[in-house]
């Protein structure tokens, strides 16, 4: 009994302590008891979009109906030589009401069946109208009513820093808009070796599935065709660096692709060497830059226009060359320094175009009108 009394007294004291410190003060409550009311903060009214947001929305609404999803299907052989279906996805955009769609060549390469899904989710079987592997471009066509063509802009005078938008279907997520700026204009090489002259580099998010979709300016006009990304090969997603083919490159070949199915590659019909100030001084040339014509293709574009190749044998290091020919310094008023610049100028034209070629013949500066031939002849 004596042992029980201290225990009882201790229990009573603990109970009194709990009553006065917790229960009576109201700090004790059930954990799961719901609050009587949830207090939230609401906006007084819907805030208007700022000018930049309004332009983003306008660009998207103007063009979303013109951007399509392109699904290509092909059959490949597996390890046991059995046929295995493969499916790839990309983007494209409608360029006229006849259902012509511009996309990348690599989106539809080797496809045995192509299906196009419009923004309204309607699907159509597509046929290949023309393809150009060297520019990574292709035109496909669908038969569908009430198509909305996109507006093709200009890529000649793009400025680093100007706003751009990309619309496409990254990872199959249709109708996705991203924005960024023109980060640079530079030549790049695609994984299959195709070189894109004056590719538009952008930080607008571009991912697998964006290929073939439009790169737009702030007016909603196409300035490029999204084609590749710089990424970790183990991740295969955007690293903030994407590239687009300039729309002027596409416009130069569109007519051939839609009417002939291939591109009539333009040819000037000359063999040239680049001229440096030192070489110009040694040869006594009238300009310290340009391309010296060492030979012309007989009956070719340059030959028919009256341009001349070299007539005197000389050596450039250990290489024999012909000197005394015309020195090309400009085409269509644009200075020409090397063969890469010449190739870029040729890529903006097609066979049959007439261009002005400015040369030095001795000390005389002459202009020639040259009608470009189709690239078949070899000099």
Describe this structure in words.
This protein folds into 3 domains: 61-141, Thrombin, subunit H, CATH 2.40.10.10; 163-259, Thrombin, subunit H (Beta Barrel); 266-374, Pdz3 Domain (Roll). 19% of the residues lie in helices and 37% in strands. The chain is built from 7 helices and 22 strands. The protein has helices spanning 4-23, 51-63, 105-108, 247-259, 277-283, 301-305, 339-347; strands spanning 67-77, 83-94, 100-103, 113-117, 123-132, 137-141, 163-168, 176-189, 195-202, 214-216, 222-230, 241-246, 266-267, 270-274, 291-296, 312-316, 319-323, 327-331, 334-335, 354-361, 364-371, 373-374. A 6-stranded antiparallel β-barrel has the order 1-2-3-6-5-4. The protein has a 6-stranded antiparallel β-barrel with strand order 7-8-9-12-11-10. Strands 14, 15, 18, 19, 20 and 21 form a 6-stranded antiparallel sheet that branches. A hairpin with a 5-residue loop joins strand 4 (113-117) and strand 5 (123-132). It is elongated and about 130 Å long. The model has no long low-confidence stretch (mean pLDDT 86).
